[in-house]
Backbone:
């Protein structure tokens, strides 16, 4: 029933335990939904209630602890035996009287791990301030350590099976971007264009369907291009305007983000055309420079040097690790293509490189999702790298 | 530019300050994106980085504090003057060296509020354990108090302008559910049916577009109906199967959830037909009993008594307050229609009442979103309350 072979999950757990040992952590409480999925296979829209996977150096198999009504979903999607899937009762939900993390603490203490060092993901989206306080309350003899991003760093290098899913996401991404560009016309409401994008994201291809990306489609136009995280409106797209397209496709929670810029009109301004040419040239050059063994910061340097030659400012971060994820972000929060990042690139690390050049009242962006390959890099989508002009 | 009149935001702030005073809180740090929106108008997909609205009893106008690149979005969507919109620099993002909540703490201290009682939303989704620890570090002389749900309780009673948006969400919900039922056929892939639902959600009506609901469409069938939070697959729907439809529409972040059950085949089992009849009768009766002045628990009692008459088990919670929200949940986490909830219903409180009856291998669910009206209740959507049979 699981998406990957059991042996793959066990390998992920081994790598996680090695990092736990290094960090002096005996018991890891992973509540980031992507980490829960990575370690066990669990996949459900249940992260709006507290839940976690508990990995102990003392135990071969982790525990999944979640809401009782989600136990069936855990049985369906994880490799865990029923004995390792634990549901907390409904009276733990949304009350000041008790908290699911008290239940988690009790389960940890019951197994004799109450005096161990417990690692928690201090800055994971769904591990709230109260969740931590309640877990501490229920484990008064534990020492707590910050295990933030510990599993995320294990996720950085993908397996062949994960890469296969990202290639499928790439195929869906081609359709998503093509749909967006086809649908963009002056007079079309933003909501209708975005609706077509959603349709393409979820429908996928004839061979395989799509999953919900961790971020909604962003297709701002006009002055809203300077406010990158505003979502769509009912207003119609207008002619002689740029549209930034920050989209993605997702396959079994694995992402392929993709960004392009379109111009609605016959005559894009010459300065925009020129900016697009420089940016695309920089993207091509930078992708061509990637090799295993190179440092992440060196990738950014290739881009920065190129763009300086044509007299343009550098962007400080041009990409980030991504792959398996849930809302609100597809980024893995680990390696970045930016100055100072010493990560050494290795085959099957996966990144989204996004080059956005913003001038006073115009701009251009173009991106590729790729894996570091054995001797270079492989991009997942195949959409022309250019300014799309729609007359 | 704001969605509501400035006077409406000021009224919301007054109510919030009254609750702060009652709770002994001088300065409120609201990081729940729905509360940020409610208090200022801010609406953007930027909650994947720390951000907040700061309300002080000492200040007429709140502060919006977020990532520098989101300042333009805040200027676009909030009623705040530029002086109250503060962006933290990019080097606060995703690093162990510093945290955006240090910046927030500094802003609070700069205004002379560093020795006050600071309220934080301890269990809000995006207020992480680390966010709290860092805020405490930057405000060593502050007393901290739990302000969880403080603004949510203000949100419980909607204004006429908010109700107008929920009525529009209701009109979109009609299309969403109709689209889902139309599209369901044996042989249609789950992803394709869900894609059509997304299209309807976002496209909205000819008059107004839709927004992204806080929860993805759930349309499980077969044995997955017992695992309510698994999302869709590529598998085709099969004949002689039930499908549970838990959907929603959203208009400017205001929701209208709606649930129905469909049966793909000519001959739904008699026991399912009977269960549907009892449940719908119960829904009708319970909605008809609602009146302002009644307690929330009394609504649930009407349902429980009805269903006991036909020899069925009660559900412990049959509804919850909802309205304005962001992923991962459209519920407001305040009043519930369940035993023990003493909330006194008042006009323009809005709820989703969802009656799900689950037997061993079949079940039926039907729901309505409604406001308490001056003498009863008003439902937002208009989809027949019945088992949809698709021969």
Residues:
């Amino acid at each position: 029933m699981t998406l990957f072979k059991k042996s793959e999950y066990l390998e992920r757990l081994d790598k996680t335990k090695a990092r736990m040992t290094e960090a002096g952590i005996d018991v890891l409480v992973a509540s980031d939904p992507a980490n829960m999925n990575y370690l066990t296979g669990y996949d459900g829209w249940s992260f709006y209630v507290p839940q976690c996977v508990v990995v102990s150096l003392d135990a071969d198999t982790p525990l999944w602890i979640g809401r009782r009504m989600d136990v069936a979903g855990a049985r369906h999607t994880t490799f865990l035996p029923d004995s390792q899937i634990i549901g907390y009762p409904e009276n733990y939900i949304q009350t000041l009287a008790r908290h699911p993390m008290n239940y988690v603490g009790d389960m940890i203490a019951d197994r004799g791990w109450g005096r161990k060092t417990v690692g928690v993901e201090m800055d994971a989206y769904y591990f709230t301030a109260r969740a931590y306080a309640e877990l501490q309350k229920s484990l008064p003899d534990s020492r707590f350590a910050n295990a933030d991003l510990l599993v995320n760093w294990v996720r950085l290098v993908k397996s062949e099976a994960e890469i296969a899913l990202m290639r499928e996401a790439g195929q869906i991404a081609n359709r998503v971007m093509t749909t967006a560009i086809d649908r963009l016309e002056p007079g079309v409401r933003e909501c209708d264009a975005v609706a077509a994008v959603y349709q393409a994201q979820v429908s996928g291809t004839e061979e395989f369907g799509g999953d919900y990306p961790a971020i909604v489609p962003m297709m701002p136009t006009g002055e809203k291009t300077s406010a990158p995280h505003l979502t769509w409106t009912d207003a119609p797209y207008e002619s002689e305007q740029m549209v930034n397209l920050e989209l993605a496709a997702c396959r079994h929670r694995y992402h392929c983000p993709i960004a392009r810029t379109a111009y609605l009109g016959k005559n894009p301004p010459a300065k925009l055309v020129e900016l697009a040419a420089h940016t695309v040239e920089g993207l091509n050059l930078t992708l061509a420079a990637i090799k295993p063994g190179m440092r992440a910061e060196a990738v950014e340097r290739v881009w920065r040097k190129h763009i300086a030659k044509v007299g343009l400012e550098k962007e400080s971060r041009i990409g980030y690790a991504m792959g398996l994820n849930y809302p609100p972000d597809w980024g893995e929060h680990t390696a970045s293509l930016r100055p100072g990042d010493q990560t050494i690139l290795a085959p099957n690390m996966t990144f989204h490189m996004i080059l956005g050049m913003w001038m006073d009242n115009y701009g251009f962006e173009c991106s590729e999702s790729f894996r570091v390959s054995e001797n270079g890099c492989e991009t997942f989508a195949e959409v022309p790298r250019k300014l799309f002009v729609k007359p």
About this structure: The CA atoms of residues 279 and 355 of chain A lie 7 Å apart. Chain A touches chain B through 70 residues (CB under 8 Å).
